[in-house]
Predict the structure.
Amino acid sequence: MSDHQGFRPTPSFGAPMTNAIEMRGVSKRFGPVIANDDVSFAVKKGEIHAIVGENGAGKTTLMNILFGLYHPDTGEIIINGEKVEVDSPRRAISLGLGMVHQHFKLVPSLTAADNVFLGIEKTRNGLIDHAAQIAQTREFSEKFGLSVDPEAIVANLSVGIEQRIEILKVLVRGAEVVILDEPTAVLTPQESRELFRTLRGFTDQGMTVIFISHHLSEVMAVSDTVTVLRDGKVVGTRPTAELGEDDLVRMMVGRNVSFSRRKRPRTDGERILSLKSIWARDNRGLPALQDVSFDVHGGEIVGIVGVDGNGQTELAEVISGLRHVSHGEIVLHGQKIQDGDPRLVRHAGLAHVPADRLHRGVDKADTISGNILMGRQDEAPWSSRGVINWRYVRERTEELIKRFDIRANGSRTLVKTLSGGNMQKVVLAREFSRAMPFLLVDQPTRGVDIGAMEGIHDEIMRQRNEGAAVLLISVQLDEIMTLADRILVMFAGTIAGEVDADTATEDEIGMLMAGRNLSAAAAPTVNEAS
Amino acid sequence: MEVLGDIFNLALIAATLRTTAPILLVALGGTFTTKAGIFNIGLEGQMLIAAFFAVLGSIWTSSAIGGVLIGMMAAMIFAGTFSLLVVTLRANEVVVGLALNILAGGLTISLTKAIFGTRGSIVNPDIVGFAPVNIPIIDDIPGLDRVLSGYTPLVYLAFILVFVVWIIFYRTRLGLHIRVTGEKPEAAEALGINPNTMQHIASLMCGALAGIAGAHLSLGYITMFAENMSAGRGFMAVAVLIFSNGDPVKVLLGCLLFGFSDAMALRLQTFGFPSYLVLTVPYIVTLAALFMLTYRQRPKIIRETLESMSLVRRQEP
Amino acid sequence: QAEDLSIAAVSGYFAQGFGISIVNGLERAEQELGVNVQIVDTGQRALDFEEQFNNLARGGDFDVILVMGWELVDALMTTAEAHPDQRFVFIDGVLESDNITYIDFIEEEGSFLAGALSSMLVEQGVEGFDNGSEVGFVGGRDIPVIRNFLMGMEQGVDSASEDVGVSSVFAGSFDDPAKGSELAMTLYGQGIDIIYQAAGPTGEGVLQAARAAGKYAIGVDIDQCPSAPGHILASMLKRADIAVFDLIQGEVDGSAPIAPGTVEVGVASGGVELKICEDMMERIPAETIASLEEMRAGIASGDIDVALNR
Amino acid sequence: MSEQSETRELTPAKAPVAMPEWLHSLLGTLLAISIALLGGAVIAIMVGESPFHVFMTLLRGAFGGPDRIAGSLLQSTPIIISGIAACIAFRGGLFNIGVEGQLYMGGFAAAWVGFSFVLPAPLHLTLGIAAAIAAGALWILIPAFFRARYGTNEVVSTILSNYVAILLTSYFTIFVFKRPGGWSETAPISTTAELPQLFEFSRLNWGLFIGVALAVGLHMFLTRTTAGYSMCAMGSNPKFAEYGGVPIRRNVFLILLCSGAVGGLAGGVETLGVHHRFMEGFAPGFGFDGVIAALLANGHPILTIFTALFFGALRAGSLLMEVETNASRELITVVQAFIILAVSAQLLVRRRRDSQAGERRWKY
Ligand SMILES: Nc1ncnc2c1ncn2[C@@H]1O[C@H](COP(=O)(O)OP(=O)(O)OP(=O)(O)O)[C@@H](O)[C@H]1O
Ligand SMILES: Nc1ncnc2c1ncn2[C@@H]1O[C@H](COP(=O)(O)OP(=O)(O)OP(=O)(O)O)[C@@H](O)[C@H]1O
Ligand SMILES: [Mg+2]
Ligand SMILES: [Mg+2]
C-alpha cells in the first residue's frame, strides 16, 4: 500500500544538484511535421521548471513522450541518473512521474474519490472499498491543502476543483515529479495563485514540478528554471532569475511584444446588443443566469470576466442562440432573438468565437475550407441558389490561412491534424472575416501562444475600431484589462458589478469575481449545488 | 370482468417470467458491451450459435450443464471475433454485428445438415435438457407455487444475474473499469487501464451471458434446436439496452415490460383477436414506453423558470 | 433408364415437417430407384424464385421439377409457360395451368379426424381429458394453408360434439419453438387439454409444452409420436414421402409416367391419415376409435364432405 | 478528445488527395475479398466440390450472359435503393435500421395504389411511386419526430417498428386484400402501374436507374449544395453545425423522413417493377443488406452502388451455384458473411486508425 501513497522524501545523500529528469536528443515526427527535433534538457530535483513556447512548438508532445504516451523516434530518457525506457504511462507512474493533462481526464459520473483511485482501487473481499478510498482522499486533500470533497460527483464540480482532483490522483500514486500541461489556462488569478502555492509546497517537500504555460508573468513569478521551445527545438534552458519577461518573449518568438493596455480612439456607436433581465438554465437544469441585463454599443469592447463556471458559458450560448432563454429579452441589431435559433442570430449579425473550440468551433474531420465555410454557407458569393462555390471558398481560405498565420498545408488540410492553437486560429479566421456588427469572443486566446495572442488582440481591436460591438469573455484578467472599454464581472450567474477599465485595479475585480462584495445571504449558490 | 380475470391471473405472471428470461439473459450480456461503449447488434447471432452448440454439447456430454458450457464457448468465440474486428481492427460495429448474425444463421443450418443430416430442427431424445426446479417450501404455498416454482434453473439464474451484474458494475474494479472505458476511454487510458482490453473483456462477458441465453432457449425453455430460433430476441435485447443505457435494473424492467406484453398478447389471441395485430402488441408497447420515457425527460422549461424565479424571490426579503 | 432420370425439388420449406417428408421420399427414390435428385432451397425472398426456376429449367438438365410452396406459384407459372417441354409437379395444390402435375394433399380431411378425436375425448370426459369444453389449435403463421388445417379441425370438432369449441392461436412464425411452447402453455393454462398444431418447428415447442404441462397434443405432417411419448395422442400424417416415391416409381418403371393431371391424396387414398400413437391406444376408449374409423370411412366414401372456403 | 490519448500516429498531415485513397481502399477491398474467397474455397472442399467449379459457377451465375448480368442488376436494385436510404441517415449522423420496415410499407402502399385504382399509365405509376415514398416516410414519421423533438434513440425505435410493419402488411395482405384463391398475396396491380422492364428476357426494370440516379443525386447534393454541406457537418459534428446556424432538430426530422421515404421507394420499386403485387414477407433482410452496403461504403453514395452491385452479383451467382453444385445456400450465406467481415475490417482499418478511442464509441 505504502508504495502508492504519499511522496517519498528525497534521499538526503547524493549531490544536491542531481537531475530528476533528463531527456537527450529526443525527436518525434508526425508524418511531415517534426514536433520535437533533437530536444535535450534537464530538470533538477526539487525545482519548478517551466516549459514555454509558441503554439505547436512541441511542448505537449515532449511531455507525452516523457510520460510514455508517445514513443520517441530517437533519444533517451534518464530519470534519477538512470537511463530508462518509458513505454507506457503505467511505467512512467512506477518511475515516480505524475501528469496533469491539459484536458482533464476525469470521469464525470464518478465521485472525486473514485476518480482519484481509478486504476488503483482499494478492495476488500474483491469488492471496492469505497469508505477507505474516501478516507484516504480526504487525508491527502487536507495534507496538501487542496480542500476537495471526496464524495462529490465530478460532473457537478468546477474546473478548479477538477484540477485539484487531477493533482490528488498524481499524489496518491506517489509521484515525485509532477508534470502539468497548461494548468492555469482555465483558472482565475486567485486559483492560479493557490495552485502555485501548492506547487511550491511540493518542492519544499523535495518533489519536482514541470509545468507548461503561456502566461509569462506566472512563469516569471513561480518557476526556478525555464526551458524555451521553438519549432520543436530547444532554444535554451535558463534560471528564471537571470531573465526578464522581454528576454523570454524574444526567446520564444524572436521579437518584442508589447502587452500593455491598448490605446483606443473614442467611438460612439449605436446600441447593437441589449440584454434585458435574462434568465437561463444550465445543462443540468439548474439556474445559470439570473436577471442579467446589459448593453453593448458599436465601437466598444465590453469585457466579461469571472471565474469559470459562473455563467459565462451560458451567457455566450444564450446570446448566440444555442441555449434557450427562460425569461427576458435579447435584442441584436434591432432584432429580437431569444427563440434559441442560432441561424436567426447569425442572420441578425453575430460573429462568434466559442470557448469550446474542439467541439463547437470546428469540425475536426473536415478540411480547413469546410470549416471556414460554416455559418455563411447560405451567403453569396460563398454559395448561390443553394449550390456552394467551392472555388471561391478555397481561395478565401488560402487567403485567411496566410492572414491568420495558420500553420497548415493549404485549404484542404484536415483540421484534426492541426495543433490546438492553430485550430483556434481557424475559428478566429472564420469569425473575424465576417465583418459583422456584433462580435462575441469567448476565451479567444485560451491555449494560444504569446505571438499569436498579440495578433488576435490586434484583430479584436481592429474590429472595434471599425465600429463593431465586441463582447469579450475571458478568464484572463490581463487580457480583459488590455482590451476592454468596460468590464462586467460575473458571479453566480449574475452581473456582480461593472468597472471602468481605465481605472479599475486587478484586486478590485478579483474581489468582485470572488463574490465578496455581495452579502452572504443574498448570494445564491448556483454552481456548486448538486 | 370474467374475461379480465382470465387474462390477469397467476399464469400470466408465470408466463411473463418465462418469456422475460431469455431476453433478460441476453440483455444482461449486452450491458457489458453497452457500458464499455460498444454497440452490439450481434447479440442475436451469439444467442443463436449458443442455442445450437448447447444442443450439440448436451448430446456430447450427456448433460445439460455441459451443453450450457459448450454453448457459452461458442457464443464467446463469436464475441471474441466481434471484439477483435471492432476493437482491434476498428471495423464498423453495425456491419460486423449484422454480418455475424448472418454467419450464425448460415453456420447453424450447415452444421445441422452436416452433423444430423436433417434440415430445420434438431429434435432428439439424446438432448439432455433442464428439468424444472421445484422449490420445496414455496411449493407448499398455493398461489406462490405457480408463480415462483417450477421453472428451469436458467430462469432463476437470469433473475439472480441481475444482482450479480449490478454488483460487478458498481462494486468491483472490473466493472468500474468497464464503465470508465465506455464513459471516458481517454481517462482509462491515462491511468493505465487499456480501453481495448476492457472492451475485449466486456465483449467476452457479453458472449458468455448471450451463450447462457441461447442455451436456455434450446435446453431450458424447450429441448430442441430450430433454425433461427432466437427469433429476434437478440434485437429486442438491443432495444432494451439502448433505452436502459445498460443499467442492469432498468434492463430488468425493460425486459419485464416486453415479457409481460408478449405474454398478454398471446392471451389476447385466445379471445379471437387476429394474430397479426396481436403479435405487434409487445413491439408497440415497448415503443410507447420508449417514447413516453423520453417525453418525460424533456426539458421542462416553463416550470423550471418559474421555479428558479420564485427561488430567488424568496431569497430577496 | 432410371439412372438418367434427374429430379429437382424446389421449396422454401424443406426444413419443416411436410418438406422433410418430401425429402425422405426423394432420398428413398434415390436409393431404391437410382434417380438423381437435386434439392434446391429457395429461401424466402420472392425476388429469387423466378431466377431459381430459370436456372433449373433452361439447361434442360432435369426431367422433372418438383415444386412445393404457394409463394412459388407465380415463378412456376412463368417458367412453365416459357419452357413448355419441362415437366413440373406441384405439390399440395392445384393451379390454373394444365401443363403441370399436381399432387394435392387434402390435409383438411386428416385435420377433421384430429378435431373429431380431440372433441370426442373432451366431450366424453375421458380420464385426463375431462377438463373443459374446448380444444386448442396452434398455427405457425396465419396463412391460408394453415387455415386449411384449422377449418378441417373445426368441422371435425363440430361433427363430433356440439358443445366443444376450438380456441386457435398463431405464433406468427414457423421457427420459434419457444413461442410455440409459450402459446401452448397459455392454452393449457386456460384448462385446455388437447392441442392440435400445424406450425413446423414452432409446433415442436407445442409438443414439448404438452409434456411439461402434463397435457396432450396432436402432431402433424410426420409421425411426431416420439417427440413427447405419453403426451402425443396422434399424428395427422401427410405421407408426402409415399406420394413422391410412388410418383417417381411410376415414371421409372413406366407404369404411370408423370403427366399433367391431378393426384388427390386424401383420407381415401391413405396418403392423409390420423395415426393414433401406440402408447395412447389403451387410453382412448374403443368406441371412440370405432366412431373415428366410421368417420374415416365416411370421408373416404365422400359421405362426409370437409369443405373449405378457399 | 485530447492529443494525449492519441498513442497511434496520424496519417501524414497533408491534404488527402482523392485518387490514392480511392486506389488504396479498392486494393484493400480486393485483398479482403480474396481472403474471404479463400475461406469459401475451404468450405467448398469440405462439401466435396472443387472450389474452382464452385467459383466458376458463381461467376457464371452472376455474369455468364446478358440475362445473368441483368439478374445480378435485378438483385442489386433494391439493395442500392435501401442502401441509399441508409446512407442518407448515416451521413446526417443518424441510423435508420428500419429500412426493412419502410420497404414493406412502401411495397404495400404501391401495390395498393396499383390494384385499387384505374388510371392512365404515367399517372398511375407516378401515384404508385408517390404512395411508396409517402408510406416509407409515414412509417418513420413517429420515430423521426421523437428523435428530433425529444432525442429518442432512432436505432431502437426503427428496429421495433420493423416488426410492426411486417406484421401489419401481412395482416392487410391476408385479411383485407387477399387475392381470392391465391397465396398470401394481394391482387395483381394493373399494367398501368407497372414500372417498365428494360429487356424482354429479364425482370430488370427502371428501378435500377432510379437507384443509380438517387445515388448520384445524393452525392451531388452532399458535395455541392448548401443543404448537403450542412447535413454532412451535422453528421460529423452536430454541435459545430448547430453553432454554425444549421437547424439541427428540423434537419434530423427531415433527414430521417427522407431516409424513410427512400426506404419506402425501395419497396415500391420491388412491387411495381418486379412482383406486380404485394406478397406477404416478400423481401426478408433487404433492409439490412442495404444498411450493410451503405456502411461498407462508409456512407458514400457512389461507393454504395458498388457495394450493392457486389452483393447483388454474389446473390445472383449463388442462385446458380445452388442448382449446379453441392454447395447449398447456407454455405453461400456463410461465405457472404465472411466477405462482409473481411471487407469491413480491411476497409476501415486505415480509415479509422486516426480516430480516437472515444470517437468510435456509440453515441446513445
Ligand atoms: N498526434 C499527432 N499527429 C500529428 N501531428 C501532431 C500530433 N500531435 C501533435 N502534432 C503536431 O506536432 C506539433 C507540436 O504539437 P504540440 O501539441 O506538441 O504543440 P504544443 O507546443 O503543445 O502547442 P500548443 O501550445 O498549441 O498546445 C504541431 O505541429 C502539431 O500539429
Ligand atoms: N480477473 C479479471 N478479469 C477481468 N479483468 C481483470 C481481471 N483482473 C484484472 N482485470 C483488469 O485488468 C487490468 C489490469 O489489472 P491488474 O490487476 O493486473 O492490475 P495491477 O497490475 O494489479 O495494477 P495495480 O498494481 O495498479 O493494482 C485492470 O484494468 C483490471 O480491471
Ligand atoms: Mg499543447
Ligand atoms: Mg392441400
